[in-house]
Each structure stands twice: as structure tokens, then as C-alpha cells.
Amino acid sequence: MSNETHGEIPAALMGDMAQDALARSFILRVTIPLLLDAEPVPHILGTATLFKSEGRVFLVTAAHLLHEDGDFSLPTIDFTAIAFPSQPIDASLQTLGSFIILRPAAPSQIDVAVLELQDAETIRQLEIGWGFLGLDQASRSIIGDRYVLSGFPLQSVRLENDCIQQAFLTLYTDALPHAPSVRNPMPGVDRFFYLQNEGFTVDGQSRPIPRLQGLSGASIWSIALPDEKSVWHPSTALQVVAVQSSALRGAWFRGVDWEAVRVILRRPEVGLTNPPV
């Protein structure tokens, strides 16, 4: 997978591109594409983020990815065919195996789902090829200097020598000051961010921002920019604040506030001794 940064790069990071590279590397380590293992080529579903808590592995993504054509009113997809690349570069494709689906109780259409992975081989491969966030790396209360959306655009997917190749998109943006008119508005849960038509790559070149198809389910991160008073590190500067669900190109993208995930993981039946606060 190649790394591409789009959107207006913060001036503080432009001054030290090493910090931008650190942020991208940190996010990529825990961000995986989800595909449907199908013929003749795998079909991209979206993006997910990996969490680990109390020895249990959770995958957070958008709920609509689990339905045919992304429509809640349609049947669910074949869960046995959901797959992921074994590692970020030159990866083979592996299915998720067994998992438990946790999502907002019906009839809610809040577009978020938590998959608790149960297959030992899947978890072993993720531990080898990827990484995990702790639940303390996500919060609804964080207000960053800016925000970052990162995931795997549909148009970048290709199959080379039986290996999955994808470009990794990193988009810096800002919160939208108002809620636009959308289908099934979720007051108190919706979060909106600017989605411009063009942005800059890490070498400063302007280019069109690709469509966000494939980024559904990706984490939206708050980012605290470097200052002169403290040492900057992505583990303290970055926090997941929402899960991307939809977009209107050239205008905005929409996310589900992390509070919806927190509510799911705090359910007694989930059984976490120390659920997220």
C-alpha cells in the first residue's frame, strides 16, 4: 500500500513532515480494509479500526457495510466471505472467521457496528501484520486542532500477483459548523466535516481528492498539532472521535460520534470489566 496525504496539510506539520509521517504510520498500523472475497476479484466493502481490550479484539466499522449494497433494508452479506489483507504491503487475503456483531439496538439506524473477533488464527494474523488501539485512544470529548480521516479508497484497489494493493488516503480537515440536510439525521450522534474537491499530497502538489467510496467505517481522528511546550507523539496527539458513514463530494463527510460505540461496549452483556468511559 502506498501512503498519500490529501487535504490541506496543517502548517505545523508542513514545517516538520516527519510528524506527518509519524501520524500516517500510527493510523495505518490499526486501520484495515475490509473486502468481500469474491470472484473474479475481491470486492471492497470499506475500512475498519482495530481495538484490543482485556485480551479481546474488536473491529469498529460502519453497520451498512454488513448489508447488501449498503442498504439497511436489504439482507446481510455473506459474513463468511468478509476478508482482510494479511499485512499493509504485498498482502494475501484472509477471511475474518467467526465473530460476534454488536450494534445499536433495533430499530435504530445509527451507522456503526462493533465486531468482536473470535477466530484464533485471525487474531494471530492481525497481531503479526497489524496493530491495535486501546479503548483509551478514543473519546467523544476531545476537541483537536484539526481532524484526520484515513482509509482505503475503492478506486485504489488492485490485485497484483495474487496480492492485494491499495493506496492509503490521509485527509486533514475541519469540523463543519452546521449540520447539512441528510437522510435519516441523527441529532447528537452526527458529526460533519469539510470535504473539499482538491488537496495537497505530502510533496506539496495539488490534486483532486478521490471519492470516499471505500472509507465507510474508517475512524475520524482529532489531532493536536505540535507546540513548543511538549514532545509531540501520535499516541498522545491522536484520538478517535467518530466513525465515517457517508459523504457528499465537494461539501462534507459524515461520521457517527464515538459515543455510539461507547454505549455498545458498555452494555452488561458485552462483559468488559473496564468498559470505555
Description of the structure:
This protein is α+β, with helices and mostly antiparallel strands and 277 residues long. It has one domain (2-270): Thrombin, subunit H. Helix content is 14%, strand content 35%. The chain contains five helices and 18 strands. It has helices at 11-14, 17-30, 120-129, 234-237, 258-265, and strands at residues 2-6, 31-36, 43-53, 56-61, 82-85, 93-95, 99-102, 113-117, 146-151, 158-160, 163-165, 167-173, 190-194, 198-200, 206-208, 219-223, 238-248, 252-257. The strands form four sheets. Strands 1-12-9-16-17-18-13 form a seven-stranded mixed sheet. The chain has a seven-stranded antiparallel sheet with strand order 6-5-2-3-4-8-7. Strand 14 (198-200) and strand 15 form a beta hairpin.
For the structure shown, list the relevant keywords.
single chain; 277 residues; seven-stranded mixed beta sheet; 18 strands; Thrombin, subunit H; alpha+beta; 5 helices; seven-stranded antiparallel beta sheet
Tally of alpha and pi helices? 5
Low-pLDDT runs of 5+ residues are none
CATH class: Mainly Beta
Strand residue content: 25-35%
Can you count the beta strands? 18
Main-sheet strand order equals 1-12-9-16-17-18-13
> Termini, distance in Å?
34 Å
Write down the overall mean pLDDT. Answer: 85
This entry's quaternary arrangement is single chain
Order of helices and strands: EHHEEEEEEEHEEEEEEEEHEEH
Shape: globular
**C-alpha Rg, in Å?**
18 Å
The domain tally reads: 1
CATH overall fold name: Thrombin, subunit H
CATH architecture: Beta Barrel
Helical residue percent? 10-25%
Specify the biggest β-sheet.
7 strands, mixed
Query: From the helix content, strand content and strand pairing, which structural class follows?
Result: alpha+beta
